[in-house]
UniProtKB/TrEMBL annotation:
Protein name: Helix-turn-helix transcriptional regulator
Keywords: DNA-binding, Transcription, Transcription regulation
A Pfam family that the UniProt record links to this protein: GerE
Domain HTH luxR-type residues, every copy: 112-177
InterPro entries named among the record's database cross-references: Sig_transdc_resp-reg_C-effctor, Tscrpt_reg_LuxR_C, WH-like_DNA-bd_sf
Species in which this protein is naturally found: Candidatus Limisoma faecipullorum
PROSITE patterns: HTH_LUXR_1, HTH_LUXR_2
MF term (GO), any: DNA binding
Amino acid sequence: MQTVNIAVITRDTILAVGLKHLIRNMFGIKATIIPSVADNLPTEYANTDLFITDSEGFATNPEFFIPRRNRTMVIAATCNCNDSKGMLLDRHADETTIISRLTEAIDQVCDTLGTGNELSQREIDVLAQVASGYTNKEIADNLSISVNTVLTHRKNITAKLGIKSVSGLSVYAMMNGYISSVPDSTKSNI
């Protein structure tokens, strides 16, 4: 496995220490504990490949984490993390699941280091529409593109993110600042 620099950013000392030791013992990777996001994060963390934070840390520091969203794993109190490709972790999951999710996150970061897995602006536009509950036809009309183009963008988004469900895409879009609210439940997700 490629060398990965990991920073655990949380005020929860027990969580931070536990993750640091788990990452070192299971993956042979040194993790650094940072109690909070400072205005000017020290330059030694500029090369950090993966940030792990709790939901409180993410919510209080979106200006730090959103630009680093592809390198940030969020530990939530409870979540359905099956569609998140390793970047969400249920803090109450069993040990095997936690190790599996950490493995997925580390693998995802390793896979994307130096690759072009970023979404294009048009893919972000389509993702925001999908996450907001619009149908393929509505997205095509809203963005003045064909339905086939919408389908192509959705296929590319799924391939790049590894997320197949609309609910998973919605969580990803919200977590990354592409949409700001929960979709209107009266819209169809087809």
